[in-house]
Amino acid sequence: MIRAAAVDVCGYNYMLPAYDIDTKKNPNRIIFGSETNPPRIPQLWKYAESDPANLGDFTWTGWDYLGETGVGITNYQGKMTFSAPYPALLAYCGDIDLTGYRRPLSYLREITFCLRKNPYISVQLPQYYGADAKNTPWAVTETVRSWTWNGFENKPVHIEIYSPGDSVALLQDGKEIGRAALENHRVGFETVYMPGKLEAVAYQGEQEIGRDCLTTAGPATQLFIHGWSGKKLTFIEIQAVDQQGLPVMEGEHQIHVELDGCMLDGFGSGDPMSIESFREKQHTSCRGRALLAVRGRGTVTISADGLKQCSISC
């Protein structure tokens, strides 16, 4: 690697197997992961922590983006492809989706960095249970942080848990259904879906170190909204919730906005297959969520069929 000798610090794109080899051959070389696959962060970070010559890691990618369509979309027909055809719009490989919502892999990263003490539960889509799921190196089989799967009662589901510690126990409605060792902060469980409560307990040896739980939500009754105002734009997070305020991630909604005194700058969701415009006053939610950006000061009224209307000033 003649070019590597000409720089003070050498970036490695998708070259994890070369880390040990190159630093042993070149003991004075300083390296870093300049572009790496998100699911491999536990392995990558072990090198960054243990090797003084390794400065750290940059994942591809932190935030989802338009283009390279489908590189992170799970294929359930057993086909390994780098991209997805129309109507795919997003790469769908970000730790954070297009609207700023954290996806499950971001929690694996947080746990790997020792920034989260509790485990994190998510569930594979039950309609694809047993399917021949294929993913590129930039993705894992899609999971959703929800224990609300109407129509799949008494059907098998796969649960994915990211966690600190060395093992995790999974409880369903208070009854332990399994305990398993973690591998690179990950472990999977199989169970049968029934509405109720799902709880993960993380252990280091026999000592409990953290918990996480999911509870079945009721029907969506209203929209939760929260806004952040900057110098020019206000971003408004929109989420369908039940009467208790729990997010409802199934049953998408056509969300409408009315503006008084301010202007629409963008309106969309994290759906990688959406063909809807970002410049219209209505958009379909994805997992019950959407994000609105408005310019200027005024009042925004947000509504969806069957849900309580709400307003916010910006």
List its salient traits.
4-stranded antiparallel beta sheet, Immunoglobulin-like, 314 residues, 19 strands, mainly beta, 10% helix
Can you put this structure into words, describing what you see?
It is a single chain. The protein is mainly beta and 314 residues long. The protein has 3 domains: 2-59, no CATH class; 104-215, Immunoglobulin-like, CATH 2.60.40; 222-313, Immunoglobulins (Immunoglobulin-like), CATH 2.60.40.10. Helix content is 10%, strand content 39%. The chain contains 4 helices and 19 strands. It has helices spanning 2-5, 18-25, 41-50, 104-112; strands spanning 9-13, 30-36, 54-59, 120-124, 143-144, 156-162, 167-172, 175-181, 186-192, 197-204, 207-215, 222-229, 233-241, 254-260, 263-268, 282-284, 289-295, 299-304, 307-313. The strands form 5 sheets. A 4-stranded antiparallel sheet has the order 5-4-6-9. The protein has a 4-stranded antiparallel sheet with strand order 8-7-10-11, with no helix packed on it. Helix 2 links the parallel strand 1 (9-13) and strand 2 (30-36). The model has no long low-confidence stretch (mean pLDDT 96).
List the helices and strands and how they pair.
Blueprint: H1 2-5, E1 9-13, H2 18-25, E2 30-36, H3 41-50, E3 54-59, H4 104-112, E4 120-124, E5 143-144, E6 156-162, E7 167-172, E8 175-181, E9 186-192, E10 197-204, E11 207-215, E12 222-229, E13 233-241, E14 254-260, E15 263-268, E16 282-284, E17 289-295, E18 299-304, E19 307-313
Parallel strand pairs: 1-2, 2-3
Antiparallel strand pairs: 4-5, 4-6, 6-9, 7-8, 7-10, 10-11, 12-13, 13-17, 14-16, 14-18, 15-17, 18-19
